Prior knowledge:
Elements lengths: L8 E5 L3 E2 L5 E2 L2 E8 L9 E5 L24 H4 L7 E2 L4 E2 L4 E5 L14 E2 L4 E2 L9 H14 L5 E7 L1 H12 L4 E7 L7 H15 L16 H15 L2 H11 L15 H16 L2 H12 L18 E7 L7 H13 L3 E7 L7 H4 L5 H8 L1
Parallel strand pairs: 5-8, 5-11, 6-7, 11-12, 12-13, 13-14
Antiparallel strand pairs: 1-4, 2-3, 4-8, 9-10
Amino acid sequence: MSIGSVKTQFFHLNEPFPLDSGESFDEITLAYETYGTLNADASNAILVFHALTGSQHAAGINQSIPGITHLWTDECVLGWWDAFIGPGKALDTQRYFVICANYLGGCYGSTGPRSTNPQTGKPYGSHFPQVSAWDVIRSQLLLLDALGIQCLHAAIGSSLGGMLSILLATRCPHRVKNVLPIATGLATTVLHRVHNFEQILAIRNDPKFQGGDYYDSDPPKEGLLLARIISHKTFVSLTVMEKRARQEITVNQPIGKFYELSNPIESYMFYQGKKFAERFDANSYLRIMDMWQRFSLNAQQPDLFKDCAHQQYLIFSVDSDVCFYPEEQKIIVKALEAAQMNVKHITVHSDKGHDSFLLEPDLYAPYIHFVLG
C-alpha cells in the first residue's frame, strides 16, 4: 500500500552553522520529508539516512520540488525507498513517524553548491566549503530538535547512509535506541578510495566543470556520466547487470567518432550514466564523495560504543555485495560483540548485489519488524 502524494518540507536555520573544516555558513536549509504521525511523546520517530546519490524523497509520489525542477526527472518522482516505507511495510507508517533529509551539500533542496551564497548573491560553486559526516549529523539533529524529537526510536541507513547511522549512534547515544545499518562499514576501504577517486577525476577532468563554477553554462554531464559508470559496476551484480542489458537496452547509440558501442552491456552502462547525469549536480557529487573519502570510525577504539549499552543493533549483509563486502559488516559485529552490545546480524542471500537494499523489501522486512518491536 502506497502512502500517496507527498511534499518536501524545508527546515531553515537562520543563524551561523560552524563546520568541522573551520568555515561556517551564515544560515542553512535542509530539505526533508516525513511519513506517518509523530505520537504524543515523540517516541516513535525513525530517521532514514539516504545513500550517496539519494534524496529526502524516500517514499510516495512527489512530482516536483521548488527550485530544482531541471534535476527532478521522472526517475525521482517515486520515492527511492517506497517499497520499504508505508502502511504495513518494513517501516510501518501506521506505527512510526519516518523522517528523511537531504544531506547538507546535496542538490535536492538542502544548502549545497547550487544554493545562493548570501554573501555574493550567486551560487556557491567552487566556494562551497568542505562538509564532514559529523556536519551532516549535527544539521539533522537540529532538524530533530525543531520537530520536538529528543530520542529516535531508530536510525536506519544503507551504504553511506549506514555509516552515518552508526556515527549518530556512537557520537550521540542518547539520541537513538535502535540502529539498523544495511550493507555498510565502519571505514572507507582502499577499494572505496580507488573507485571514489576515479569518479572524482572523471568529473574534475570534464572541460565543462570549470573548477566548479559552471552554473551559468553547460554542466559537466560527461564527467557525471563516467562517474556513474565507474560506480554502477559495484552496485549491481554482474549477472543481473548482464540480464538487464539484454532485456532493456539495444545497441544503437554512438558515443563518438572513433568508437561505436559493441555490446549490450556497454549500451546499458552508458544509458545508466546518461540518465544519472540529468538528475544530479556534479559539485554535490564531489562534496558528498569527499565526505565519504574522509569517513572513519575506528573499530579498534575501545570506547567506540561507550554509553551505548541501551542500544540494539541489527546489521544486514548482502552476500553478493561488492561495494561493501560482507567482511565489512563482520567488523562492525565483532566490535559490537566486544563491547557486549545487543546485536543481531542477518546475511541476505540475493543475486542483486549492493542494490538489494533498494529492491527486495521482503528479505529485510521481517527482521526489521522484529527488532523495532
